[in-house]
Structures are given as C-alpha cells and as structure tokens.
C-alpha cells in the first residue's frame, strides 16, 4: 500500500457522495423514502410473531393478504417516485389513498407507524416540484439582480426617463430643471409617486 491510497479513497467517497447528492436533488427523494418505509410495517406486522418473554404474540388476521398487497404497493410507489419522478403526483395521491385504506385493512395502518410514514411520503411527493436549471454561463451575481418575472421593472436606458414603459424617477427640484420634467413625471408626482397609465 502506498501513502496515496487514503487520499484516493477519500476522493472516491467524496465523488460518490456528490453524485448521490446530485441524483437526490433531481427527484422527490425523501417522499420516496418515507413511502417505501411506510410500506414495510404495514406488510410486516400481520405476518410477524412478536416474543414478549415466554409469550408469543401473532397478529394473524383475515386481512393478511390485504396488508401484504398494500405494503408491496407502497414500496413500489416509493421506488416509482425515485426512478419515474414525472409520475410523482399520481404516486403521491396513490400513497395517501393506500395509507388511508391501511387504517381499516392492516391493523390500524401498521400500528399507525406505516400510516404516518406513507401519508408523509405521499404529501411530500404531491408537493415536490423540480428545480429550474441554471442558465449556462449564469454567474452568482445574476441571481442577485432581483426579480425577472412579468411584473419586474427594468431600468430604462439613458434619456428614456418619462417615456411610456420606463420606470418612474422622482423629481429633484435642486438638480432637475423644468425642461427635465415630462407630463408623466408631473402626473406621477401629483399621484403620490404612482404612475398612471
């Protein structure tokens, strides 16, 4: 072994971690995880035999097959949220419906644990939205420039103050002469700073 081996393994671990982080950021990861984990207790408890000292407790009910189907469907929906994130809304609504059905069918939703996990996963899947990719060449200063939506005011070029579509600039009597005032600026001053029209 050489002295460089730990550095290479740390680099590999860091690369894998960053790759997983990038993969996780493009899909509803936590929604899929909670939904998947919610299906496990719902499917497990009807078939489990719990030991309490010398006493064994079995939750054998007639709804064992229903519990297994609901649990497997929730696990499948969790994996669907990870690998087919375009269907996240359908998968989230289906997870919520299956969690509600598990209250009646599967021992109070896997002793409420599976119910809560599946409900949380379904809600996260429905509310998740993909992030908008950055434009190529966009620097950190472009994000700080302010809103760029429909209602955002853009700065006007020099000499365009007072033209229709240009932002309002307050009149300073000390620096602006009467020739600098346009009818729109005068109307804006008379309306408390708001432009009309």
Automatic annotation (TrEMBL):
Basic and acidic residues bias (residue ranges): 134-144, 169-183
Matches recorded under Pfam families: DUF6114
TM segment ranges: 29-47, 59-82, 89-105
Keywords: Membrane, Transmembrane, Transmembrane helix
Domain of life, source organism: Bacteria
Residues covered by region (Disordered): 134-197
Protein's UniProt name: DUF6114 domain-containing protein
Organism lineage: Bacteria, Bacillati, Actinomycetota, Actinomycetes, Kitasatosporales
